[in-house]
Write a structure and sequence with these properties.
Radius of gyration: 19 Å
Shape: globular
Strand content: 5-15%
Number of helices: 7
């Protein structure tokens, strides 16, 4: 019934994948932080329930893949919210779709909610070209982030921090803000070893001159 409700919403997608943290090289601090937050015995207490993380980095550093692997690692479904699909042509439709999507997300708990490239999703939130529709949607989402009591762990990703609304930085909305840099030598080696195993590449082959 939950899956059918999710499909009817139109703005939410359920990720089906088998990748866990073993398929993702690097990011040891972020992996440890999220696993500890989601698997701690006291997470059933609403007052101590984890809320989520905000991930900042240049493109291609593994933010989206981390979120998908996190769901498999902790045994939770991963929902992907497409903010663009919430926009409607009728007066009040966008705001109503936003509220309805958040209700569906609450009903799917416990789960992981991913909002990819959130700075683009809410681009122009302070503009006047849409009569304030996006600002009201943004306000509804921020209020839910701050006050929701459902067991939903929110992972927002952003490539350009300069375009990120400053309201996202409040500590009440996320448990932590992480910057994911380009991989170091040790992380590159770990990633390369994963690909060697995944594609069954001969480790002893000679590299061409």
């Amino acid at each position: 019934m939950k899956t059918q409700t999710l499909q009817k919403s139109g703005s939410l997608e359920l990720h089906h994948g088998q990748e866990d943290f073993s398929s993702l090289g690097g990011l040891p601090a972020l992996k440890s932080f999220c696993k500890r937050a989601l698997l701690q015995p006291s997470r059933g207490d609403e007052r101590r329930r984890p809320r989520g993380v905000l991930l900042l980095s240049p493109p291609g550093c593994g933010k989206s893949q981390f979120c998908k692997a996190l769901g498999k690692e902790v045994g939770r479904p991963v929902l992907n919210l497409d903010v663009g699909r919430l926009m409607g042509s009728l007066v009040g439709q966008s705001e109503e779709r936003t509220r309805q999507a958040l209700k569906v997300i609450d009903a799917m708990a416990p789960c992981v909610l991913m909002i990819d490239e959130v700075e683009k999703a809410f681009a122009g939130v302070n503009g006047s070209s849409d009569s304030g529709v996006l600002s009201r949607m943004f306000g509804t989402f921020l209020l839910w982030l701050n006050d929701h009591s459902s067991d939903v762990f929110v992972v927002c990703t952003a490539n350009d921090v300069s375009k990120l609304p400053p309201e996202f930085g409040r500590s009440e909305r996320f448990d932590g803000i992480f910057f994911l840099d380009l991989p170091c030598r040790e992380e590159k080696d770990a990633i390369w070893n994963i690909y060697l195993d995944q594609y069954e590449i001969n480790r002893d082959q000679q590299m061409p001159d």
